[in-house]
Each structure stands twice: as C-alpha cells, then as structure tokens.
User: What shape does this take?
Amino acid sequence: MFTADDGTPAAWAYRHIDANGQRRIFASLLHGSMANGMPGAIGLQKAEPGRQVVCLAGDGGISMLFGDLMTVVGQELPIKIAVYDNGKLGFVEIEQKAEGMLDTFTKLKNPNFAGVARALGLWGQTVSDADQLEAAVTDWLAQPGPALLHVHVNPMQLVMPPFTQVEPAIGMALYSTRAILHGRGGDVWEMVKENFL
Assistant: This one.
C-alpha cells in the first residue's frame, strides 16, 4: 500500500505505480492539503500490520511532520518512507508560475533527511545520483524496520499534465517574461532545458 503527499509525490505515484486492487495508492487529492502521506501510512500500517506500507513524501511535507518519524520508531512500524527532495514547495511554485507570478517563499533549506532519520532511530540513506538509485531502493525495501530513503530530485522538473490548458500556458509565459525582467532568465532557461529540450 502506498501513501503519497499531495503534489509531486502523488502525481508521480499515479503515473508510475500500477494500482491493481492489491497494490493501492492513498492520497487526499484535495487542493491545498499537505503532509498527508505519513499520517496515512501510520494508519494503514496499524490497520494492516501484515502489509508493506510505503510513504512517498515531499521534502516540505516530511519537514512538517518529523514527529511522525518518532511515532514510527516508537510503534515499531516497518513503514518505508521515500522523501523526494527538490528543495522547494514544488506544486506551490508551479501554481504561482501558472498564474504568471514570480515564485515567492517556495524555496526550502533542507537538512540531510537520512541523517535526521538515523538520529531518530530509523535506517536512513541519501541518493543523489540516478545510477545509485536501484541499489539504494533494494537496500531500503530490505530493511526489517522503518526506513527512510532521501532522494534528491531535479528541482526544475515540472510535473507535466497529460494535456495543457490555455490559461496555465499563458501564465507560464507571463512568469517567464517577469522572471527575465527581474534578472532570473537563467531560471527560465533551466526550466525549458530540463523539461522541453
């Protein structure tokens, strides 16, 4: 059973995990909710102690609920937690840009989440290179108790919908113009390069 924070973790979960009745994905899917992956994972693991529960958390979401990591250790819940670290509140930033605004107060200064996990009593590892990911996931899933895999993801990667509406496209063009006028043309070029070239 997978839980996912709303935003990028939920979007990627629904794109890349095949739910089939036995393998299920749980997310709130409500606009503005945040950090729902860990509470959902704890509830599911308590309700179904014989099932594997995997929490897909964003860096912003997991930061809000470090206390839940202590609960997982204290309750000896073997939840596997993946933290997607893009160093920002990704969906908030996308929404701001889609409205034509410059991104404001979305950047995060994250700790080493694997180090935090180890300090709290969980297994923890950080992955920054795609070549290391498969082996790290194998180690992570093999842990008998709670385990946290801290994965650095590309901060400029947009979560693209399967279709594009006119209003967000206009908003992104407006954002791009404003960013260039404010000396942030490099950000626009990185976004274009990572997502469209």
